[in-house]
Every structure is written in structure tokens, then in C-alpha cells.
Write a structure and sequence with these properties.
Length: about 300
């Protein structure tokens, strides 16, 4: 016997998710001053769940925002074989959102330049970035919104740490090298699982990527699986790593460009030096038991 689904409960849960997404996106926008009065935001829509959700949430937030800003959706048609050219225009027309489809055959360039079996992401990303910057200029956009979520940021952090030897990730707000463009990531605080659920609820017309994301054995996929495994075996670890990105203590790392170790001496007012409080504070959140916390405190520097 099939269980009856209460449509009121379904609607209630969907509304809860919308509120969560609006809150997280709104908080990120506010924390990093992503969108200002009078901005024209170019929302990059790829046809994936993340960019669909980003556009949808930005439309909702615009209705209640205390400032005025406009949105224009932009899709880069890279001429991948079998790409359904009608899906996005039909969807965006239904939303009554201004949009622009930019047609550039970057697919052929990537396939010609990158040998079979090699990762295409780097070149593909650079080509896309240059085209999107140009389109932003042509459309008069003041901000470029990309749909990277919390796990994208964490995966990039792990990749740079494990393979690049740098503590670096995707910032929520970025100025281009030439200083002419500001890139924002409104989904920076949003867990990917929320977006997966939202895409199902909203029945977004997902267009799969047949170039980058479909490649096997990508290191990014390995980082994604690592985060998923940590989430299952160590609940809270992913959230803790993400919080660490927002609580950086330069005096307790080893980058002399960020902290003046050479001139550090007794009595120096370092302003950004948090001392050994960094060892103690927050231990309640990471220790498994009260006894473990007390034991670590016992051997911490007073």
C-alpha cells in the first residue's frame, strides 16, 4: 500500500527551503557588499542546477531588496555537440528575464588544443572568462554573478592546498586582473545539497555539460568525494573547514607577507596577533568529549 503524500506538507517543506536559500544568499550579499544600488548584475546561466537556482533566488531577493538593481541572464553557447539551443531561451522567456545568448565555438578550440585524456577545465575556464568579461562590457554590467556554491569553494581550497601549495580558494567577491570587472558568488554560503533539492522542487530544465564535468578521474571529483565522505563519517567537519576560511589568523601561519614576523618582539603591538587564545577558544566545538577538552586545556599555554 502506497503512502499518501500530503501536498500541504510538501509545500511547507519547499517554502522552508526557499527561505533558507534566500537567507543564505542575502547574508552573503550583505557580508561582502556584492550588490549595490544601481548595479546591473550579469547572471551567468549555464543550464546547470546552481546557476538556475542563483537566478531564481536573485529574482526573489530583488523584489524585497531596499535597493534598486537589475538582472540580465547570459549564457555562453560553446557549441558543444548536441547542445539543446532552445531550452534556455524558452525558460528565460517564461521568466520574462532580459537575457543574452553569446555563441562562441570554444568547444572546438579546447578539443583541438588539449590532447585526449587531458583535463580541459583550465583552458575552457580561461576562454569562458575572457568572453564573459567582454560581454559584461557590451551589456554595461557592473557585476558578474557566478553560481559557485559552498562545496565548490571548499573543493578549490583543498585542490590548491594539496596540489598547488597555497591556502587559496574562490573568493565570494573578486576584482579582475585589469581592475575593470567585479565577479560575485552569491551562493558562497549555500550547501550543494540545498541546490540539488531545490532543482528537483523547481523542475529546472537541466542541460548536462559534455565537456568538463563529464571527464573521469578529475582531481576536483576526488575532492568532492572526500568532502562527501567526511560529511558522512564526521558530521560537522565540512562546516568547520568552511568556517576556517572566514577566521584566518595570519600570526599563526607562516606567510611573512601577511604578518611581520621579523620585527616581532616582546611588547610589540601586533593588532592582528590573537596570541595563544587561538589554541584554546573553540575547542568545545572540535573535541569529542568534555574530558578531552579539559585534557587539551591542561596542556595549553596559559
Amino acid at each position: 500500500m502506497k503512502t499518501q503524500v500530503d501536498p500541504r506538507k510538501v509545500e511547507f517543506e519547499e517554502n522552508k527551503l526557499v527561505k533558507k536559500l534566500c537567507r543564505l544568499v542575502g547574508t552573503a550579499i550583505n557580508d561582502f557588499n556584492m550588490i549595490e544600488d544601481g548595479d546591473k548584475v550579469m547572471v551567468c546561466v549555464s543550464g546547470g542546477k546552481d546557476s538556475y537556482a542563483m537566478l531564481d533566488i536573485l529574482l526573489k531577493l530583488r523584489e524585497r531588496a531596499p535597493i534598486e538593481f537589475s538582472l540580465v541572464a547570459v549564457n555562453l553557447d560553446q557549441k558543444q555537440p548536441g547542445f539543446p539551443e532552445d531550452i534556455l531561451p524558452n525558460y528565460l522567456n517564461q521568466l520574462q528575464v532580459p537575457f543574452h545568448i553569446e555563441e562562441q565555438d570554444t568547444y572546438s578550440i579546447v578539443k583541438r588544443v588539449i590532447p585526449d585524456g587531458k583535463t580541459t577545465c583550465g583552458l575552457c575556464s580561461r576562454l569562458r572568462r575572457g568572453i564573459l568579461y567582454r560581454v559584461a562590457d557590451e551589456l554595461g554590467a557592473t557585476k558578474i554573478a557566478l553560481g559557485h556554491h559552498r562545496e565548490d569553494i571548499l573543493e578549490t581550497f583543498l585542490l590548491n592546498m594539496f596540489y598547488g601549495g597555497q591556502l587559496k580558494s574562490m573568493p565570494p567577491k573578486l576584482q579582475s586582473d585589469d581592475g575593470r570587472h567585479i565577479v560575485i558568488r552569491p551562493l558562497a554560503y549555500v550547501p550543494e545539497k540545498y541546490l540539488e533539492k531545490y532543482a528537483v522542487d523547481q523542475n529546472f530544465p537541466i542541460i548536462p555539460c559534455n565537456l568538463c564535468g563529464s571527464q573521469p578521474n578529475l582531481q576536483r571529483n576526488a575532492m568532492k568525494e572526500l568532502l562527501k565522505q567526511w560529511g558522512k563519517t564526521n558530521p560537522g567537519r565540512v562546516e568547520s573547514i568552511f568556517r576556517a576560511l572566514t577566521h584566518v589568523v595570519p600570526s599563526h601561519l607562516m606567510d611573512a607577507n601577511l604578518f611581520n614576523f621579523k620585527d616581532l618582539e616582546i611588547g610589540t603591538d601586533t593588532k592582528i596577533n590573537f596570541g595563544d587564545l587561538a589554541i584554546d577558544e573553540g575547542l568545545e566545538d572540535v573535541c569529542a568529549t568534555d574530558d578531552e577538552f579539559k585534557q587539551i586545556k591542561m596542556y595549553s599555554i596559559p
